[in-house]
Amino acid sequence: MCACRAQWEAGSPGLVASPWQHFARTKLCKGSGDTMRRVVRQSKFRHVFGQAVKNDQCYDDIRVSRVTWDSSFCAVNPRFVAIIVDASGGGAFLVLPLHKTGRIDKSYPTVCGHTGPVLDIDWCPHNDQVIASGSEDCTVMVWQIPENGLTLSLTEPVVVLEGHSKRVGIVAWHPTARNVLLSAGCDNAIIIWNVGTGEALINLDDMHVDVIYNVSWNRNGSLICTASKDKKVRIIDPRKQEIIAEKEKTHEGARPMRAIFLADGNIFTTGFSRMSERQLALWNPKNMEEPIALHEMDTSNGVLLPFYDPDTNIIYLCGKGDSSIRYFEITDESPYVHYLNTFSSKEPQRGMGFMPKRGLDVNKCEIARFFKLHERKCEPIIMTVPRKSDLFQDDLYPDTAGPEAALEAEEWFEGKNADPLLISLKHGYIPGKNRDLKVVKKNILDNKPAANKKSDLISAPKKAADASDTQNEAKLDEILKELKSIKDTITNQDERISKLEQQMAKIAD
Question: How far apart are CA 157 and CA 310, in angstroms?
Answer without folding.
Answer: 32
